[in-house]
Every structure is written in C-alpha cells, then in structure tokens.
Amino acid sequence: MKLLVRDKPERRLLDESRRTRAMLWVMAIMLFLTVLAAALGLGMGRASRALDRQLAGRLTIQLVEADAARRDAGARRIAERVRALPGVERVAEVDRARLAELLQPWLGEAGLDADLPMPAMIDVDLASGDAAAVARVRDAALAVAPAARIDRHAQWLSPVSNFLITITWFAVALVILMATATTIVVLLAARGGLDMHRDTIAVLHMLGSTDVQVARLFQRRIAFDTLLGGALGTIGALAVVWLLGQQAAGLGSELLGGVALAPLDWLVLIALPLAFALLALLAARVAVLGTLGKTL
Question: What is the dihedral sign for C-alpha 173, 175, 177, 179?
Fold first, then answer.
C-alpha cells in the first residue's frame, strides 16, 4: 500500500491539470464493465456445470401403445426391471394428468380428454450418466417393449449447455479485452503525462533524479487512480449484479437459479480492482522507463 500513498510534492507535480483526473473516471467505467463481464462469465460457467450435473444421469423412457391396458402393463414391467438395475437412483412414471396439462396449450381442451391416446413416460435418474449405465437401461426397456424409446435429457438440452459455454467464453474474452484496453489507456496516460511535465522532469534529472525515481512517481499516481476508480466502478457493478440476482431468484427457474454466484465468485469480482491496479502499475513503469530511455 505504500506504493499507492502520494505525498504533497508528488501531488503538486502530477495533479496540476484537470485532464489528469480523467484517468480515475475512465478506470471506473472500465472496471464497471469488466466486473459485469466477469460476473456474466462466472454465472454462466456455474450454470453450465450445474446443468451438466443435473442432466448427465437423467433419462425418459417413452412407450407408445394404442391399447391403454397393454401400455400401462408394459410401463409397469419396464419400471420394475429398470428399478432393479445397479446404479439406478429413482424410477417414476409420469402422471397422465400432468401430461395432459403439458399438452393442453397445444391441444386445448382436447388434451384433457381421457380417451386421447398418450404415451406412457417413465423418468429415470442414474447415479452416473456413463454409457454403460444408459445401455443397461435401454436393454432392460427394449427387452420388455421393443417399441420403447429412451431419451437422454442431456441430448435435449445440449444446445442450451453449448449456449451457456459460448456465453462463458465470450465473457472471458471481454475481460481480456478490457484488461488490454486498460493497459493501452495507462500507456497513453503515462506518455501524455511525460509530455506535459517534460520540463519538470528535465529539472529533476539535473537535480540527480534517476529514470526509475521519476517512473515511480507516475506509476504510483496511475495505480492509485486505477485502484480508486476501479473500486467505484466495482461497487456499482456489484450492486447491479446483486439486483439482477435477486430478480432471477424470484422467478423460481431452476436454470436461472444455477446462475447465482458463489461466495468465491464474489471474492474474485472484489479482487478485480486490485488486479487492474497492479496491471496499471506495471504498464506505467514499462511505458515511462521506455519513453525516458529514448527521449530524455
């Protein structure tokens, strides 16, 4: 923290122009956008992993049979055989009334007709979603009813999982882009400061100051502005993330519930201003020393 403390001579040297204070607000905006992008990436990544865990071992066995008695009897036999398999955690026949409710938006009142032929559906949860466990369930179902169809939930929602992964990597790319933009801003600010205070720096050199000592003045100032502005931007972004999280939780969606950030994710977001301040400090040091070595 000593590197970020500015004494009065340093403030007099580097705070003469209001233009130099724009660095603080630029960094506030940069960190605001960066924290939002990082929160998006962390949330989408967590939701993708939660979705994969939930769907990896979930299957639905569908039995289509015009004869209701044969259909129900076949469904019961399939459920009994599958339930006895190793690695099966849960087997449950889907309630026909629930199926009718799901069909009602498309079929209207006809979806509630008891005479409407509907397939029997059996939900199966496996301890593991490996291919061998799925194959055992498929073989058991087909042995009872060759016309049975086995659907993996992971296949149905694989486009959703792929979309979440894409959004995660897009957010990572945004964070990297913002870090790159921050570095460029620091380089421009450092070089602009050198041009503005060229005469003062020349006097410091005549008094015996080295390039490293001059660079230290600029890097402290830039790191301080980055940390202070970044803290302001981060506070604003965290407030937005918290508000959106509360609204998503109120929707009661299982998928949106997986987007919620864990305590470790919040710590990562809070640490971003410090990481950007260190990045700015290094970039300013490189820029100032490089410029002084060439021109002064």
Answer: negative
Q: What pTM value is reported for the model?
A: 0.69
Is residue 172 predicted with pLDDT exceeding 80?
A: yes
SS3 state of residue 5: coil
Token pair 């620091």 in the structure block, residue: 186
Tell me the C-alpha distance between 153 and 173, whole Å.
30
- Give me the helix-helix angle, 22-55 and 158-196, nearest 10°: 160
In whole angstroms, give the CA distance from residue 48 to residue 170.
14
Residue at token pair 């069909």: 103
Amino acid at position 58, single letter:
R
pLDDT tens-digit map of 66-125? 777 788 788 888 888 888 888 788 888 877 777 766 666 666 555 455 556 677 888 888
Q: Distance from CA of residue 156 to its chain's centroid?
A: 22
d(CA 107, CA 65): 20
Nearest Cα residue to 35 out of 169, 234, 244:
234
Place of tokens 């459920």: 79
Alpha-carbon gap, residue 280 to 274, rounded angstroms: 10
Best CA proximity match to 279, nearest among 194, 182, 174: 182
Can you tell me the distance from the alpha carbon of 168 to that of 69, in angstroms, rounded to the nearest whole number? 49
